[in-house]
Amino acid sequence: MASGSKPRGGAAAPVHGLPAASAGVPEHQGLLERVPAILYVAEAGPAGRWLYVSPQIEAILGFSPEQWCADPYLWARQLHPDDRESVLATETEEASSKHQSNASEYRLRHREGHVVWVRDNALLLRDGEGHRHWHGVLSDITEHKRAEAELERRAAQQAAVARLGEHALEGATMSQLMQEVVSSAAQLVGAGVAVVTELLPGHGSLLVRAGHGLRPGSAGKVTVPGGNLSQSGYTLSTGGPVVVADWDLEDRFEPSPAMRERRVRSGLTVVIEGRKGPFGVLGVHSRAARSYEAGDVDFVQALANVLGDAFERQAAEDDVRHRALHDPLTGLPNKVLFMDRLEQALARLRRRRSLAAILFLDLDRFKLVNDSLGHQKGDQLLAAAAPRIKQALRASDTVARFGGDEFGILLDDISGEHDAVEMAERIAAVFTRPFVLAGTEYFMTTSVGIVLAQGGELAEDLIRDADAAMYRAKERGRARYELFDELMRGRAMSRLRVENDLRRALERDELLLNYQPVVSLRDHSIVGVEALLRWQHPERGLVPPGDFIPVAEENGLIEPIGRWVLDRACRQAAQWYHARPDAAPLEMSVNLSAVQVKHRGLANAVQAALEATGLDPACLTLEITESVLLEDADGLGGALAGLKALGVQLVLDDFGTGYSSLAYLTRLPLDALKVDRSFVDGVGTEPRDTAITEAIVAMSHALSLQVVGEGAETALQIAELSRLGCDLAQGFYFARPVPPEQITRMLESGPTWLAAAR
Ligand code: C2E
Ligand code: MG
Ligand code: MG
Fold first, then answer.
1. CA of 546, nearest ligand number
2. Is there a single domain that holds both residue 701 and residue 685?
3. pLDDT tens, 148-181?
4. 545 CA closest ligand 1 atom index
């Protein structure tokens, strides 16, 4: 693009103010000088002279018309170097061609050096003598060009923002996005430095996450002080974009050491917003003092917004991933994540000879605590237990919450069994301190099962084995650990088998009841019997209730089984009653599990059993274990009242193992308490057990409850129970639970213990 007729060669006389009609000089001088452009007449061709230049040239290019016309080379010299070649080439060509007119845009240098964009629009006319002259207009289009360039820059900025948004959606990593942001910002704002900083927790300082024009390696290492010790800090405290046009004049805050080091003179910073507060700051900085236009501020803010959204999305994704793999209550990994880590550990073990241990940890009696204190307190306790367990572990170990009060621990790379045992002991040690909830202290213990892994095992099997070892720890009295052995494997498998077989036990009539005499401590006569359930398994022999009742409670079979027990026991009691019409009626005790007590149909089932057998309700005693009391205090009162209304007796079984308070007992329609075997065991030998039993007896009598001592095995225990005022006793000392025929014999010929005593 070029044009124009500008003279070259030959000295030209100034023609400013030439009379009209001569040399093509304009006629209406005054009018022309009001046009906001330079008007000119010049000879065509490389040697053409400027014959006339209007005075506007002074304002636009800084030269007077005289200066301009005096030097035919001036125009060419003032051409911008980038445009000169093409403008001159076009001029040469056009001047010689038959062209009549031309318009082009190019840059000229103002006399003071700055660039002026002009549009040169000229007509080639021939005068009377046949000379060809350009009659032209040079308009200053600098402002127009600047606006055009600005538009282009804005378009490029918008495109950059759109591109960034696309990349964010396409799943670019945060560091890729941050890098893109700093390079776009630096380039399209025209600044040497661009930085993304992240607000560090605690809101003290900011960490450089990505930088353009910073010292290499700054990202992730260099921090920037907050508050008014840096532009970024100040930006966060004001919340809006902050422009520093010239650091020499800035007094709101100080430049950060990093910016000082880069010797920046100006800067623009905006907040990167997140949903829950600012994520950090995006800044562009320049070594020159300069102003940042509104468009630049908008652009940088738009980049920051896309980045902020990406951070949000990333955080949300992390959150979802975290939630899928962690337990919300304790924040610990969940079983899914645990299994994954276990698989990885096993794979590592297969590569190098080493050992790992899996610990299965269960809080002792947690259910009871949960039920008595409420789920909220239970949750608090679990949440407090998690960090305790963690505290005992090494950083490389994994502890996960499997659910409820069960935790799994993976000890990676241990040298032997002793490491696992030592860890179990350390865990026990951190649990010796009480847990304090709302000012009250609670003591918790743990049962831990341990299994070692060498890498060849299946993760599922290891968990099952650790679980079996944990069960053993529970059975052996809790607050301890057990190492898994092969024997346990068999037992764990059999637990699984129970479930299947139990379904058929009822149909095949494999259940039976044994009866254990309940003896008066006054005269050692049999006043009643307790029905105790047994399962005559075709292969396993006689299975005790503890081995299958929990399974039946879980799968609902306890309902039909419970009805069967009630019916069978009532029938047996009625039979003994009719066999001895003159004797005092024998009391029949039937155990109810927690699940049964909670069931609505219980009173109906009891009534049905009584009606079907014709048994006097006063002869039937229902035993509920103490833990039942804790489960649903309100519903329970109603359920027990419903039973009581049938005329049966109610006994609280296993007293002393739970947490019943005295006040609680007064509100329930109870007739008797059974002191748990764990106390009776030490009666007469352990002062503490004796004292507790004595207190229970005194308390019960104050509440008009009878007291039964359970599990008495020695003469000493019987003597002591009598001395303490216990009313009744039950235990191997008198008789084990036996089939009904043996009870019949005892009733007919008198109990053996009385015969022995005589
Ligand atoms: P429980 O009601 O406390 O029954 C007493 C348990 O202690 C019985 O165990 C009995 O055999 C045992 N025992 C009695 N005297 C002595 C003794 O001197 N020394 C020792 N070491 N043990 C003694 P069993 O029969 O294994 O029953 C365990 C538990 O199973 C019962 O505890 C009861 O809670 C539950 N249970 C038994 N039968 C049924 C039933 O028909 N339905 C329900 N829901 N639960 C039952
Ligand atoms: Mg019982
Ligand atoms: Mg008991």
1. 1
2. yes
3. 988 998 999 999 999 999 998 888 899 999 999 9
4. 30
